[in-house]
Amino acid sequence: MPKNDSGASSNFITEMIDADNESGRFGGRVHTRFPPEPNGYLHIGHAKAFCLNFGLAARYGGLCNLRYDDTNPTKEEVEYVTAIQEDVRWLGWDWGDRLFYASDYFDKLCEFAFRLIRAGKAYVCDLSADQIRETRGTLTRPGSESPYRNRSVEENLNLFERMKAGEFPDGSRVLRAKIDMSSPNLNMRDPVMYRILRASHHRTGDKWCIYPTYDFAHGQSDSIEGITHSICSLEFEDHRPLYDWYLHNLGIHHPRQIEFARLNLTYTVMSKRRLRELVEAGHVRGWDDPRMPTLSGMRRRGYTPEAIRAFLDTIGVAKRDSVVDIALLEHCLREDLNKRSPRRMAVLRPLRMVIEDYPEDRVEELDALNNPEDPAAGTRKVPFSRVVYVEKDDFREVPPPKFHRLSPGREVRLRHSYCVRCVGVVKDEKTGEVVEIRCAHDPETKGEGTPDGRKVKGTIHWVSARHAVDAEVRLYDHLFTRPDPGGVEEGSEEDAYGGVDAAGAARVPPAAEAAPRDWKADINPSSLATLTGCKLEPALAGVAPGFRCQFERLGYFCADPDSTADKPVFNRTVTLRDTWAKIEKARRL
RNA sequence: UGGGGCGUAGUCAAGCGGUAAGACACAGGAUUUUGGAUCCUGCAUUCGGAGGUUCGAAUCCUCCCGCCCCAACCA
């Protein structure tokens, strides 16, 4: 992909901006904005949008505002406005002193409404919401005009003034734009501009009982802020003619709107509605659950802002609907983490190993490289003693082909330490399970090499039993079992739509051909595995929440805020690539 | 059956009339005290389909097919 000096990708949007700059359309100015509604936490799809907006501003030496599109007081909360700022900042962006709210413009918007009424381009309509819907027509049939459409300017002025003054009950009247009830674009069939809504707003409190709709607020808000390029997602393409109409009839600054396709990822869901449902139904522990695709969840999981940005740069920006393989996100994560993570040893499923020929009371402090990718990261001391814990997975009584870890009679290297050979096992009398392995070490192999040059194929990690720190470790897997949660069931494409589900009760689907499954049925019941009694090397004692490292041979981990002084809790951010696991999986199939 | 948008590999995505970039995934191999990392190699004779224009078409024209969005006083 073509890149400019700042490393950001070129795309169809930069081409349009380049053209605008060349023609002098906005005097060479580039001013964008990120306009979230504070009704939920930001997810990585939003990150695509704001990195695009802030990135464009940075690329062209322009500015990017943060503006809350808070026109619906029934859904918005301050909790979300705070969280949104934290997330945007986390990814490295700065809106300077340009933090705005659409609600800052309520007075101005109201004035715009009066201006349109005076121009005979807006009217107060007494039809109910149901009646408005019924008279809007359908996709193929034009709508019919409201009986209130031709009220006089004076009457409209009077009525709207009284709507504003609170003389009418909620929902009894609306202000509508007088455009064209037979337009093939439904958005142009006299859309609602203002509704009566007695709800307390998170910023304006009870000052207003009428609120502008998003469509009547968004374009003008961009205009007021002097935005040059209004970047938004594809579904607003149909609304552009409406925004054009408002801006044109109001005669105010007219930004250029450019639409792009939002981000979708396999094995997860990406809509605030669904994410909220996961939170509220308790399928996850909260918006910042490390399994969530929310930025707060990813942060808690151990993602780095750099990895997310690299991912976003890699996927590009286009208008085609797409679903990006989550493996690409994980690749970007590993690539970043590999370079910067100190290595540590941790045993998740401990198996006791006794080195019979190693003195009972001896302890050696061995040198271990902190990061083979980065010599500057230095070394640390790791204590070694007669009894250590190794990973259960690293021992097989009956080794399968190509297994080059430990089994009776075989030799492996204990990472940074000695080579040991398994000379016996101790089994549980009742279950027959191996509960301890007995080994002999070769004193000549300390740290590196073998005296006779023999090859020792496997290297396994370990933790000295008497020095180990006990920990809880949380392993995460995809939140959903299918790449397309709720996707159409194979073979059922011809099924008739069986009814109206609760969530869609008011939204009658068109006579659908395909039958989507319930997306919640695809939730992965094993997306979280909590391991206790894990053994960490002592260097890991007392690390601060947010501390990231690689547990050698296992993956990248991050200390969770649930950690306490005596018991660390670690989240697995992502596993290492695991060729052996792949071989074993292939063998099972 | 209206309007708007989009079709390039399993997934993203360049390409802008001169003969299909790159990344992920996948498959081999080298190397390795992390089965990690790294390094090689392979992976679209063809761009949704069919016609047409042209010396030459993924790029231009025509028709067809498929997918997404729109009938909230949500955003």
Give the strand order, joined by hyphens, for the main sheet: 10-23-24-25-21-22-11
Cα separation of the termini = 38 Å
Query: Taking all residues together, what is the mean pLDDT?
Result: 93
Number of strands: 25
* Quaternary organisation of the protein chains: single chain
Total count of helical runs of at least 4 residues: 13
Radius of gyration: 31 Å
Shape: elongated
How would you sum up the major sheet? 7 strands, mixed
Percent of residues in helices comes to 10-25%
DSSP strand (E) fraction? 15-25%
Extract low-pLDDT stretches. Answer: 1-7, 491-513
What structural class is derived from the secondary structure elements?
Answer: alpha/beta
Describe the structure.
By secondary structure, the protein is α/β, with parallel strands linked by helices. 25% of the residues lie in helices and 21% in strands. It contains 13 helices and 25 strands. The chain has helices at residues 12-23, 44-59, 78-90, 106-118, 129-135, 153-164, 214-224, 240-250, 272-280, 295-301, 305-315, 326-340, 579-588, and strands at 31-34, 63-68, 99-101, 122-125, 174-177, 192-196, 210-212, 229-233, 256-260, 343-344, 346-347, 350-355, 364-369, 379-384, 387-391, 411-414, 419-427, 434-442, 459-460, 462-464, 469-476, 528-536, 548-551, 555-559, 569-575. The protein has a 7-stranded mixed sheet with strand order 10-23-24-25-21-22-11, with helices on one face. The chain binds one RNA strand of 75 nucleotides through helix 5, strand 6, helix 7, helix 12 and strand 19.
